[in-house]
Design brief:
Order of helices and strands: EHEHEHEHEHEEHEHHHHHH
Strand order of the largest sheet: 3-2-1-4-5-6-7-8
CATH superfamily of the largest domain: NAD(P)-binding Rossmann-like Domain
CATH class of the largest domain: Alpha Beta
Number of strands: 8
Helix content: 40-55%
Length: 272
């Protein structure tokens, strides 16, 4: 991909759009190649301040889309039908369209956009804000290998990307899309436990966060099943197995599985 040939237009300049645009600007596009549209002036201002002063922001969708080779739909699922109606007549130069809205299917978007529109649906997550995101993506049949490569190049600037069948994206939403919130709650609970046992809050939170970060890196780099890594920590009759027993009594495993299921089902509802 030759970055100099592309111009990215963001429809919506909220937190996720800002994270993605910042990643693009760090690695593959110049800020001047990025434009953001949003009806809210504070969101536009924050987007421009974060991405770079050469980044163009506008309150007119037509100005953003004009000349764009990639259009990123970064709006809430509830307003997507209205947004599709606004941008559909503007896609006169047939850009690649990438959506990060939960639950909105490729078929639903395709029906509202010009025939043959090249569409990619992505589910990112908030660690994209620091370049450590986990995104999953699915491409419509109208996409070319070059479209997929372009999306891969752009999205890799904010973390890892996994290509999946579209039917799996609701499950992805429930797992990695919503997953950072689960992790934050686990970190908070571990920190609370440390405070209960006498640790200062700041120390407890740093230890809890680093523990999850280190454990995650071990899963990603050592090629072992999480259960094997867990067993390696749990000495017979030791402290860790006592703690694991308490987690089983509290239903942690089932609670997390239920959370993924509930969020995935909600994602499906949003797309109906």
């Amino acid at each position: 991909m030759d970055p100099s040939n592309h111009r990215a237009a963001f429809i919506g300049t909220g937190q996720m759009a800002t994270a993605l645009a910042s990643g693009f600007a760090r690695s593959v596009l110049r800020p001047a190649q990025i434009c953001g549209y949003d009806p809210a002036e504070p969101a536009r201002r924050q987007f421009q301040q974060t991405v770079g002063p050469e980044c163009v922001v506008t309150e007119h969708a037509a100005d953003a889309v004009s000349g764009a080779t990639v259009v990123i739909l970064a709006v809430k699922p509830q307003v997507m039908p209205e947004v599709l109606g606004v941008i559909s007549p503007l896609l006169t130069n047939s850009p690649l369209v990438i959506s990060v809205a939960a639950g909105i299917t490729l078929a639903r978007m395709s029906a509202a956009l010009p025939p043959g529109t090249r569409l990619i649906r992505v589910m990112p997550n908030t660690p994209a804000l620091i370049g450590r995101g986990a995104s999953a993506a699915a491409a419509a049949d109208t996409c070319t290998p070059e479209d997929v490569q372009l999306a891969q190049t752009l999205l890799s600037t904010v973390g890892m990307i996994q290509w999946v069948g579209e039917h799996l994206l609701d499950a992805v939403t429930g797992l990695s899309g919503s997953g950072p919130a689960y992790a934050f709650q686990i970190i908070e609970a571990l920190s609370d436990g440390g405070v209960k046992m006498g640790l200062p809050r700041v120390v407890a939170t740093r230890l809890a966060a680093q523990t999850l970060l280190g454990a995650a890196e071990m899963v990603l780099t050592q090629g072992q099943h999480p259960a094997a890594l867990k067993d390696a920590v749990a000495s017979p009759g030791g402290t860790t197995i006592a703690g694991l027993h308490a987690l089983e009594q509290g239903g942690l495993r089932a609670a997390l599985m239920n959370a993924v299921e509930a969020a995935a089902l909600r994602s499906k509802q949003l797309g109906q």
